[in-house]
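This section describes the prediction task in plain terms. A model, or a person checking by hand, is given the sequence of a single protein chain and must write out its three-dimensional structure as a string of tokens. No templates, partner chains or ligands are provided. The sample shown here is typical of the held-out split.
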Amino acid sequence: MINSEKNGKVAFFWDESYLWSLLAYHTFRGLSVDFELLTGSEIRSGALNRFDALFVPGGWAGDKMEALGTEGAARIRSFVESGGGYLGICGGAGLALTHESGLGLAPIGRLPTRVRVPSFSGLIGVEQTQPAHAMWEGIVEGTPFHAWWPGQFSLVDDTAVQVLARYREPVPGMSYVTDLPVEPEVDWPKWEASYGINLDPARLGGEPGVIETRFGEGRVILSYLHFDTEGDAGGNNVLANLLTYLAGGEKPEPAAAVLHHTHRAGEGSPSPEPGSRIACEVHETISALIDFGRHNFLWRWRTPWVLQWRRGVRGIEYSTLFVLSSEICDHAAVIGESKEDTSRLKRLRIITRSFATDARRLLMLERFAMSRGPLSPLKISDPEIKALRKELFSSTRRCGGRYREIVELMDRVLLPMLKKE
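The expected answer:
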């Protein structure tokens, strides 16, 4: 069942995942996985030749494909075709599918937003459709797992794809659809009429959550369940099983917890060095913005790393800024003090302050708009809200606007720090 010829070395594709790559990074460290963070540039240069499997975390598949470029995509296809393993979680799963921004490793596509449930998040039960598969070793049937705003597979050829898990019912009190808690007595048709989107989580029942296929000599496993969710013992056990199944070697075992820290404004004692001090000032700015939204009843902390926000405002983006800036502040002691490092951090401080000022204005306008009725997170007639949303985030769900400039700069600061670890 496990390929004993492999040594367990895992390449971790870092680009264009931000929050999701950082959470998976900490889970990998907590499991003592033998892995290395790779960028699209390194993949284009042939770095995959040193590894047994490739892991791709969540994020936008189209952005990941752009980071890889034509040569990087070809390198991944060649790697898998020659016997390498591929494990994609959520956006990493979407990257492997057959569509305009996919690698074509699996002969299936994805359901369009209009026919799926686009806003589910939380714990959901699963059916182990292949209970003898290596991924389920040590996992009790009925164990729920996390899904964070998953896509959905559009199965085309069942003979070429093996379904390893199907969704059952969400766990009441531990799941949401947009900002609505999943409870037994929710009138979903009423809310669907109000929100104008599919909401009833029963639509997920029986849909495939994890699949396996072959591409050449390689195995491809794609999951819309986030087995890499930090602190989820059951899911992390499945992740360890899957990495061993694809990469060989010894099964990763939990080590001492290596969880990211979530600084609040004013906590900690930043280094007196200029770069380190600036890094923590950036986090204090984001922390104050988070507190502003919390005091205005626009969101609350759902986990240490993700907000539960009201429909009509952005949420995952603000969560991402908080977690990335927190991580950079945590690593302040290892920030280099070169002219380039300091210049980059100063630029980050400037654009973060400007973003926070305009974001406060946007949040207040959105709050007032909510008082007049349901507010769409994308469609809006108010010209000021529309202009601010476009400037700060873009007019789509994709990562854009000044937000994108900030997270890309944070990513360039953070990645060298993590590679030093």
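For orientation: The chain has two domains: 10-247, 274-420.
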